[in-house]
Amino acid sequence: MFGTGRCTHILWGTVAGVVAGLLLAPKAREEMRRALKWYAKRTEEGVLEKAKEARAALDETIERGMHFIAEKTTGAEVAIKAGREAMKEKVEKCCS
Question: 2: which DSSP letter?
């Protein structure tokens, strides 16, 4: 539907509209500051929570990747060892 750039512009336009609406609303200055601090605090908490979730998912992915590599490395080492032994037997059989 929309390109990434267009969606980003719509999002930023929405954010700017909300901020302008908050600043231009007929509230007392102190009340507005409290409201903005509350919104900022809530947003900060949400971002930190999402960052923790992302970090946990990343750690899990890294752990799975390390386990996968360890399994494949072990399999490769066994295959290489078997190949060397087979080659050694062929050379000994051939040249004896």
Answer: -
Task: Supply the pTM of this predicted model.
Answer: 0.48
Any idea where the domains of the chain sit in the sequence?
A: 4-95
Report the residue count for the chain.
96
The rounded Cα 37 to chain-centroid distance in angstroms is 28
pLDDT in tens, 28-60: 777 877 888 898 899 999 999 999 999 999 999
- Tell which residue, 44, 7, 8, 39, has the closest CA to residue 21: 39
φ, ψ of residue 28 in degrees (nearest 5): -65, 150
On whether the CB atoms of residues 57 and 65 are closer than 8 A, the answer is no
